TrEMBL record:
Organism of this sequence: Alkanindiges illinoisensis
A Pfam family annotated for this UniProt entry: Phytase-like
Record protein name field: Esterase-like activity of phytase family protein
Superkingdom of origin: Bacteria
Database matches in PANTHER family: BLR7070 PROTEIN, PHYTASE-LIKE DOMAIN-CONTAINING PROTEIN
Lineage: Bacteria, Pseudomonadati, Pseudomonadota, Gammaproteobacteria, Moraxellales
Sequence ranges assigned to domain Phytase-like in this UniProt record: 273-599
Amino acid sequence: MSLFCHDFVTCLSSARYSLSQSFIWNCFMQLNYKSLIIAMSALALAACNDDNDNQDGTAPVAQVQTAYFIDSAVSGLSYSSSSQQGVTGSDGKFNYKAGETVTFKLGDITLGTAKPTSDKLLLKTLNNGTTEQGNLSNSSINRAVLLQTLDQDADSSNAIQLASTTLAQLKNTGTLDFTVAPEQFAQQLGSLLSKLNISASVVDAALAKDHLLVSEASALGKATISYDKTIGSGLVSSIERHVIPDVYVPYSATNASLKQYFPKGFPLAVGSGLSFVSAQNGVSTFYAITDRGPNADSPMLADGTATKVFPAPQFAPTLVKLTVDQNGVKLASQLELSLNGKKITGLPLPTGSIGSSNEAALSEDLKINLGTDANGLDTEAITLDADNKHGWICDEYGPFVAKVELSSGKIIEKFGPGTGLPALIAKRQPNRGCEGLAYDNGKLYAIVQSTLDISKNSALFTRLVEFDPQTRTSKTYAYPITPADWQDGKAGKAKLGDLVALGNGRFMTIEQGTFADNKIHNKLYVFDIKNATDISNLKSGEDELEKLKDPAKLLAAGVKTASKTYLLDLKDYGWLMEKAEGLTLIDANTLAISNDNDFGLRVDARDKAGNSVDATELTVDAQGNLIDKNGNSGYSYKIIANKPEERHSQLWYIKLNQAIK
């Protein structure tokens, strides 16, 4: 019907209102003339204002719309509705009309149905695949397991591609019960794959769930999971997961294998340190920092020198500002760190200098020694100075702490072992300097990542340094480590992550690494140094306190360690990444945590039979040839993409059901 209707009679006599004639006659018979005019006017107005009709009075035809099926983009999935049918495209694209129910299938297996309401159709939308709390149901997780298991290249992080040959094998196979527990579904799916001779390994349900949540966070800006007090320590009420958008570190060399794995370069790893700035008008702001750049373990040189491979040796440790709003995370700025007008790198320090790891930096083909950088830093934590114009960072080489201008990335001043910080901490294990740093009441608190390289596996503590940058004075406290808690009873395997000051001598930190159960955990603790001993000048006779193996003897030597209280293990809440490195407090009930994604890479070293080996146990000669300690050759070494669950930089908001006091 047109927007303007001048013919009152035409409006009343339109087909849409033909059934109203008895109503009009009623008005004539039962109502006065004025009532009739009101009734007729109402009908005319309704007819004239009906913009949804065509000019001939018929209802408009629904337009074909486009949406995208997401568990990553899923291609090759059959779909059908009352008006549309086809196969999802490489980006998960499918067509439908508003109000239609769309059915998705793999061969003859019905994956599920949904009515699209936007251009993004999440897998959890199928058959209302969420719990009463809004979390993913077993059916959604099982559907994700099926799709990811059948992914053509077994890497769902780069989208899910369903091969036509595999889908053809799924014809006339009956159904799968998606409602059962994931363990039962895995058995059910495994039996089906075996029966059909489909060569694929059933994806672990935890990995499938994680990928589903990462996909949701990437598509919508966040993914939220609720928890009750029966989960883990009972302290977490909800977790809001964010995925930090990828920007890339260029790879400028010519290694064909690396170019295949990293066609865009290496994804920037922004989560080595994290500091909350503010929350205003729905936007939260953080500072984050990278570490020394893309690097990997590698074989020793012939003279026994340890090495690291640096495929992007030009990389400068980078200060990053992140903003978070309802649409997700944005990288607001990136600043390369510089000293005296020249950007620094993450290359190791010269051998013999304070803070040197005594490593050689090699190219990715193991043939070129890349040299050193006298100002090199392996940056980790970041914390804000009181003026909010500067930040403080620490590193794993020295360990060093440095003051940085937030607006430029300029290093203003730097302190290290013997130059402000205690000289003894230079005995840190190689590359285990400082990962945790906090600023409180004008003082810096830097925690050594692991036990010092003095009886490292039997030591009962690592060291927390309190440093006053105004007076250049320091104190040292003992953070307790129990060797029996760690793999093989070795205290040296303990790693402490970031540090948050809670006030009045209290802090929060992350203990992580391989524990006595041979599993990696990421455990949060609160600890208190109010009653701890300053051990700066204490020894056990002529020996350092690390030589003491008995807690009673440590106490007898006058050492009272910090007291600590367990909070939670991130593994109980779906954290699958190895490294939880950034930690900050948003408010008394909310933590933010970031991971180090290692720039998306890992090492793949193998013997001639194809078995995986530890690259650091091999030796490389000047021509790049590899041998083991027995002189055997035939080994290969290359850098590849790391595991899909490790590949993204993530930012988690963890909401607690009670305040951290």
